Amino acid sequence: MKDSFFQKKFRDIDSRKIDVQPIDYSTVKQLIGSLNNKVFDQQFENKYQTYLDDRVFQFKVIYDGQGWEIRRTLKQFEQLERDMAQNIFYYYFQEKQITKSLERDNPKTTLILLYKYLKIIVSNEIIPQCALEFLEISCINLPFKMKEGYMEKKSGGRSKKDCWLKLQSKLAQYKKRYFIITQQSILYVKGPERDKCKIIECLSFDSDFSFLFGKKETGEDNKIIIFFSQRKLILRALNLTSYIDFIFALFKSIKLSPYTKLHRYGSFSPIRTSQCKWYIDGDQYFNDVCDAILKAKDTVYITDWWLSPEMYLKRPIDVREYAQLNENVYTRLDNVLKIVADKGVQVLVLLYNAPFLLYNDPKHSKLQLESMSSNIKVLKHPNNKIPDLYSHHEKMVVIDQHIGFMGGLDLCFGRWDTSKHLLFDVHPFEQLWPQIDFSNSRVRDFVEVKNYQKTLLKENEPRMPWHDIAIQIQGDSVVDLSRHFVQYWNFVMRSKQKKKQQELLHSNDLKMEGFVPSNQQNFLESNVIYTGRKESLIQMKQPILIDYMKSQDVQIEMNQTLLSNKQIEAPPSNTQQFIQQQYKNYYGLQAKENQQIEEDDDEEDHYYILEGNKQYKEKLKTKIKTDKQKLKEYKNIEGIQAHINLEFFIPSMEIYNNSQKCITQLTRSSGTWSTGIKQTERSIQNAYLQLIQEAKHFIYIENQFFISSTAGKPVKNLVANALISRIKEAHEKQQRFKVIVFFPLLPGFEGEIDQPNSAVLKVQLHFEYLSMSRGGKSIIEQLKQDGIKPENYIQFFSLRQHELSPQPNSIPVTEIIYIHSKLLIVDDEIALIGSANINDRSLQGNRDSELAIIVQDQIKVDAIMNGQPYQASKFAHTLRTALYMEHFDLPYEKVIDPLSLQFERESTAQANINTRIYKQIFACYPHDDIKKISDYEQFKANKHLDEYDQLKQFFKGHAVMFPLNFLCEENLNLKANQKEFYAPEKSFT
């Protein structure tokens, strides 16, 4: 049997899911007074005194698991009854005249009678539209809703410089629209019915959110002007009752939303609690990303600087055309996304729209992905005809707004690697780096990436290994990742200005009614993404903390120094503790008794007897023996202290990378061009500065670049200054304090130093060396000027790998391990992981867009700091020790204490040994012996590949010393005869 007209119109509202509960009553004036704000002036109160004395009755409406409050006067109830009587589908109630027989002088009795009246209405199978609007029930049922109702909206409100558009705005008319206010945003549609609820716009609350109301501020008694980062809304209430109710809802939203104010470090994100898992290198990261995507039930959100649809997330790959394919073949990214999209999962991808000069080819990525399924949507930004100087650099994957991945790894070619950092694929069929993924951007950069089946490198040319750090997050901080995605997506869609409007996602997509999967612990709030051009509208469900203002997050935050962007122009002089210790949960760890320090043998160093240049080799042999002898002497001297240290060492401790109780906070670099916000956010730099200043024992940094303000103009970020300040403080107080920095031996740009195509490589080195060791204002020079030995407080390392090329023409080869990490660890207590480099592009906020998360584990583990028992945060400690074990190839007992003199001398000596052997065998650059480019020819002529078999056994780990004197007699800055000279200098910093 066909549905009747009425049933068709209202079939989406299931009256069985509606309930009403009485709450309280008050006068309108008392209701306004509960906001603790001086809402209206005396003139308004005098004018509307009679109305302000009217009673307001509050009820809780529950529909489909979501609850909200409505506030109604007796006049509104009387109007409801009149509307019901006029409805074509009107039916009689037993208490039809209920609103006329109320005991007006007994508000408690009145509340009960009104409650019974509403219960009668909702108990019927069919509820008229006027009653649904009275109860604020529409086809858009969002959790944590504050208010629904009609308002008149004035057209325009976007900031445009065009005079004609300004004139249009003045002449704009008001149109009736249906508004929904939640704790997160304001959105509006044409009406609450199904055929009118295509969402026109959703505006999220942020720190720029504010509103004006009243005749004095707006010129009219019933006008409200609301300001967002992206635009302003000019609204006019249909009557005084809805005007007051709308203002009440706005004030309540400001109180409850975590995004209407800035938080610690000037971040948009509050302090949260999350479960975190770290990743070193890409193999397990991409494996987990793949598994999480395949489990998606609702949405997948991706942002990337570069995305390769043909990248395999799991390796190895069987490349034989007719061979038995292994299951990893099906983990190609485009195929994985197609699998979930075909199940109805909405896949949304935001890509940096790289100019044609770069190899990213976002056009190919968009075409390839969108061809896989209609449920995959890809946006590129920016869309300027003239290429922008800056990029969208954040890397993020969020699945079902429940689990998030972020860090330094794009979903693209060249990123997958293991801790072994192999230079070649040793298996002919089961390949780890198939086709174009076997790459080396130092030798030959990517070109025509859509032709992914070709190989870029020649025979015996090694790939460039890729070292990176990433993190998986589950819990409250995923809210903020989703929030960032919403803001980014909305801004991009608005900027496109298309006129076409598409259908809103329906409830069978688990989006429309704020569906909450039963296996999710957090409450989810739906947000809707506005296309800005009335196009595709994406609805989101975001976890929200109930009773937010009473939550622990806010209590923690109240004790912190809230730093706005304007406050942090220099490192703070008085530092405070980063986060107060919230719990006393410790892992009990077994101590190994009578652990003895490893004795060094007295065997003859026969393995350093070299052939060839005897004079040089004798010098090398003597130097290496001296380094090893120093280690022996130190172990004898420090043996007792080492034994004491090892009493607290737990050799059986497993290095876990997964922690359940972490205090987390998302930070970002974001500005007008990237997300449309008015006030530039540079909370990543703010966090760096404060964390460095508050460090008590040591700082560990891994980064792709190291360019800071000590390089002079035009560099502005203050990371290097903060390091200098903290080291000087340690020196003055005679504190044991150490900074360890790992970054690439060379920037990852194509070109040899003696070739004309290396201008970009050299200018990057120019600013890095000015920051670290030369130019007069560098870190090392400033420390020396104050009588401080820099090596006592700060060391710079890099990574390198060696290997024999495959048969038949097997030869020894070496290549740098490209460090792409963006990591800061402080005191084995706090970790900062993200996409931001140490340069102005990443840290100034209004340049490259970035994301980073700060993690402090509440679970403590027994550790050692400067020879003393120490309670370290599990997440930071296990990540730092795992990195030390990989880089230096040392056991856990030797890296547990980052301030151990034994570790410092042993790791430094081995890094020096590695550096010298690389020079002896490969004569590879960069090296301190190459003072100027003309030295390079003679330097590389002294390689001895024939000694590889003899010396390779003495390599240990991947760490080498960064050559601070490399090309120290050369001007590495751009020159007028180079085309890059005419690009803005700040694009390189």
UniProtKB/TrEMBL annotation:
According to UniProt, the name of this protein is Phospholipase
Q: Which family does it belong to?
A: Belongs to the phospholipase D family.
Keywords assigned: Hydrolase, Lipid degradation, Lipid metabolism, Repeat
- Under Enzyme Commission nomenclature, its number is 3.1.4.4
UniProt-recorded Gene Ontology molecular function terms? phospholipase D activity
Cellular compartments per GO CC: plasma membrane
Q: Does the keyword Acyltransferase apply?
A: no
Q: What is the lineage of its organism?
A: Eukaryota, Sar, Alveolata, Ciliophora, Intramacronucleata
Species of the source: Paramecium sonneborni
The organism sits in which domain of life? Eukaryota
Which residues belong to any copy of the PLD phosphodiesterase domain? Answer: 388-415, 815-842
Give GO terms for biological process.
phospholipid catabolic process
Per its record, the protein catalyses: a 1,2-diacyl-sn-glycero-3-phosphocholine + H2O = a 1,2-diacyl-sn-glycero-3-phosphate + choline + H(+)
